[in-house]
Amino acid sequence: MTPAVRCTGLRHAFGATVAVDGLDLLIEPGEVFGLLGPNGAGKTTTIRMITTLLPAPPDTIEVLGRDVARDRTAVRRLIGYVPQQLSADGTLTGRENVALFARLYDLPRRARAEQVAAALDAVSLADVADRQAKTYSGGMLRRLELAQALVSAPRLLILDEPTVGLDPVAREGVWDRIEAVRAETGMTVLVTTHAMQEADEHCERVALMHRGRVRAVGSPAALKGALGPGATLDDVFRHHTGDALAPETENGGIRDVRAARRTARRVG
Amino acid sequence: MSAPPVAPPAVSAEAGSPGLVRTALSRTGTMCLVELQKLRHDRTELVTRAIQPALWLLVFGQVFTRIRAIPTGSTPYLDFLAPGILAQSALFIAIFYGIQIIWERDAGVLAKLLVTPTPRVALVGAKAFAAGVRALAQAVVVLLLALVLGVHITANPLKLLGVALALVLGSVFFCCLSITIAGLVLSRDRLMGIGQAITMPLFFASNALYPVQLMPGWLQVVNHVNPLSYEVEALRGLLAGTDARLALDFGVLLVTAAAMIAIASALLPRLARG
Known about the structure:
Chain A has about 270 residues and is α/β, with parallel strands linked by helices. Chain A has helices at about 45-50, 70-80, 95-105, 110-120, 140-150, 170-185, 195-200, 220-225, 235-240, 255-265, and strands spanning about 5-15, 15-25, 30-35, 60-65, 65, 80, 155-160, 190-195, 205-210, 215-220. A 6-stranded mixed beta sheet of chain A has the order 6-7-8-3-9-10, sandwiched between helices.
């Protein structure tokens, strides 16, 4: 079966700083895969290369059998992307926010309204779809972004820190929607997170990144089991990253922190 | 739990892959629609942005009409000035689109747009035409004010269509200039400084306030390479019936707008990475 994502010897440097250093990764179709690691581990750079935001050399990344370097537009049609920041437009209504992405993905006019309504319904925002997004709570905004990413029926959903700044109830709400849609459509979900408990509960497999490389990969249960009885995913994380605060090696490290803070402020 | 959006193949994004021209037209329509939706939800910007052009017409225009300091032949000075203020109003809207795109980068919006199957050139073109739509909405307010002040404005629908086209092309150029600078400096603060540094010189080095013949020689040279002057000349010719080289004016606006879209598109990935 064609993997959802295959990275082979992936490398990216910002000047003299190597952010991703010979990364090998295989994500099976239909699984919820977590990319974990401390700040500066290379997660965001990897995601940005998979989503075509950063250039990747040919034959280093395949998304559902398509080479990212050679077939960018086709890859973009397969992807739904939710960035870390809350990027929905507060001036527009929920429906207008989702309809914008339905148009950007060239959904036919006759199916568009129905597909937009279905995406909003899937994230339980149908009742408030005609309210301006600036009146939404943080959890609702995140679900709105999920609807924006889902409206094109992507085969690979990529979420960058989807629950940052959300309260526990809103977090569960977001994960409930992700899992329900995944179960219904069979799409692959690739998620980055710092929240080990979330990764443990919701990801079928995780990869632990440190200094641009994958240090461990497997199911949370297998990784914990390999460390010994009673081990948590936090222990696995510390074991592989050396419990050290990594330097901000990724380009935009400060911006990542600012973005996280801005997102946290917006969700209140 | 409600039903998730299971897409039949016909409506999956994988199915459609229109050509570049169709994509560009579709994205332009989409971005223009979004601008109109934003304006519909928040009309305060139309009013606040109208204050400055209103002051130019009310204060500068009326005072200079009274003192007859600027010779404009048989054309009343307010009639001469109104197209210049119209162009200035559009310039001020478009030149700060670079700041908006940097905000969109910081807010994750740009990344989301770049991950859609949209060629960079179509995305930049769409944004630039959306700036034109916003400038047009503003132009309606300025023109209404000009009518109240007694400015003679053509009622010929074809000429008014030409006015709209000149305003949109001018906005496209200055919006893309702004995105280009954003792609070079990458920071909102720097762009604000540069934006403020170039807008007034562009305005004063054009024929917006005074006829070219009154300018010193060196300023006339600058005026000839300033796209704003061609925009003003076209607007003035169409609105007030003054002498204009419309073919040249629209030719310059079209070529410079297309060139600027190409340059801004080339710098967009740098902006996304920066």
